[in-house]
Amino acid sequence: MLTIRVVKIGGSELDDPGWLARFASAVKAVEPLVVVHGGGRAISRALDASGLPVHMRDGIRVTTPQVATVVRQVLCGPVRTNIVGALRAAGVDAVGLAGLDGLLEVDLVDPAALGRVGTVTAVETEELHELLAQGKTPVLAPVSRGADGGIVNVNADDAASAVAGAMGATELLLISDVPGVLDGSGVLSAVNGEDVDQLIRAGVVRDGMAAKLRAAGTAGATRVRIGNLELLRSVTAGTVVLRHGRSAA
Fold first, then answer.
1. Are strands 239-242 and 190-192 parallel, antiparallel or unpaired?
2. How many CB atoms lie within 10 A of CB 93?
3. What is the tens place of the pLDDT at every residue in 8-31?
4. Cα(first)–Cα(last) distance of the chain, in Å?
């Protein structure tokens, strides 16, 4: 049986070809794995260019049908193309996919307040397992379709968490531009899932890191770490997020 890891990437790093090249080289050394990606900054730029408002509520993008269309165009277009291209240049046999290909089933979270924002209710894992067995690396854009057939915006951290749990992944890696969860004095080696809300309320973590911690606390993977590219190079790098009854080992 393959040992499977799920990796989520996003943020400003996706705008940096050098970072993407370093990421691709690191993936080549540790595959097989599944990549789930965001692209929020590219989406915001595209919305600005289209004259559509960028409206966030508690760190979540309020998504009208028009915004949802832009999300699909950006994530399944230039963002995913750049990631797949960097991976292939490093010798990784990457395959671009999206939740709307039937891989993710979603429900709308709060249509009145957030519009077309969804949460993952089920993951179709067969195709992902088949691609991994063939030596390929799936690169998944989380944008999906709702029960009504409309486009749904799904947070990439949450999607990665759901994919990791559904696939029985040994590890979920949430990669960003910081070495882990910072408390003002350095990187925390571990965070208990029960402490996540307290850290958020105290302002120790906010915005994107808060979203990562929430996703990590509910992930079904055996082990969850948050940090930078060192997560792919060292098994001790980053911050381990612990649920009740789960050790850091």
1. parallel
2. 12
3. 999 889 999 999 999 999 999 998
4. 21
- The Cα–Cα gap between 164 and 158 comes to 10
Domain ranges of the chain: 5-242
Burial of 247 (0-12, 13-18, 19+ CB in 10 A): exposed
pLDDT, one tens digit per residue, over 226-239 is 899 999 999 999 88
CA distances from 13 to 7, 155, 200, 208 (A): 14, 17, 24, 13
Would you say the pTM of this structure is higher than 0.85?
yes
Structure tokens, 146: 């709702």
The Cα–Cα gap between 32 and 80 comes to 18
CATH class for the region spanning 5-242: alpha beta
Query: Strand, coil or helix: what is 64?
Result: coil
**Quick check: 118 and 16 in contact, CB under 8 A?**
no
28 touches 93 (CB < 8 A)? no
